[in-house]
Design a protein that fits this description.
Blueprint lengths: L4 H8 L4 E5 L3 H6 L6 E2 L6 H12 L4 E5 L7 H11 L2
Parallel strand pairs: 1-2, 1-3
Length: about 80
């Protein structure tokens, strides 16, 4: 599900929402949403889900994003999180 930048900006104010840039850290270092966190999805979505749980717990809401409409990393990360509950 896509969100407008205004919606993401509002969600960033919620302490129970974490915005995750799932691209490699080198891409995050170049440009990212202010207030977002870097947590690359890598090659294994299971490891990604474990890293999210370890870093943030299970009780948060997550917004994942990547490089744009043609990038599948954000949707894949969201699906992995959703599939693991």
């Amino acid at each position: 599900m896509s969100m407008s930048k205004e919606t993401v900006r509002e969600k960033l104010k919620d302490l129970n929402t974490v915005v995750l840039n799932v691209l490699p850290e080198s891409d995050y270092a170049k440009i990212h949403i202010l207030g977002s966190k870097s947590l690359p999805i890598g090659l294994n979505s299971g490891d990604f889900v474990e890293a999210v749980e370890k870093s943030y717990g299970k009780d948060k809401s997550f917004i994942t994003y990547c490089a744009g409409l043609t990038c599948n990393a954000g949707p894949e990360a969201a699906k992995a999180l959703r599939d693991k509950g």
